[in-house]
Amino acid sequence: ILCGEKKVRIPLEAQVTKQESKLKQLEDVSVIQDFLEVFTEELHGLPPPRQVEFCVDLIPSVAPVARTPYHLAPSKMKELSEQLKELSEKGFIRPSSSLWGAPVLFVKKKDGSF
């Protein structure tokens, strides 16, 4: 391998065949087939293929990291409640009982709001 170039050696006896790359269709994605109720009716298709594919390797039966929740000042707790209620009403979020989560961090804007 040379600085981003890939050398491939093919023995003379080998036959080289060209295989057209098939773009994935929605029907090819098992997750979509397994959880149809989660996906909208207007699912227009998959995004174009990326140069780099990312994946997260999950480790079965790993317990979440137990941490004490951050303490919030009453003003921030009130703002959190209001924002969660608004996002829930708009349908952007929904109640969850997941053991995995992320902390909330508020940053004040120039006008003093969060």
UniProtKB/TrEMBL annotation:
Spell out the InterPro entries in the cross-references.
Answer: DNA/RNA_pol_sf (IPR043502), RTL1-rel (IPR032567)
Keyword line: Nucleotidyltransferase, RNA-directed DNA polymerase, Transferase
One Gene Ontology molecular-function label: RNA-directed DNA polymerase activity
Question: Which PANTHER family does the protein's record reference?
Answer: LDOC1 RELATED, RNA-DIRECTED DNA POLYMERASE HOMOLOG
**Protein known as:** Putative reverse transcriptase domain-containing protein
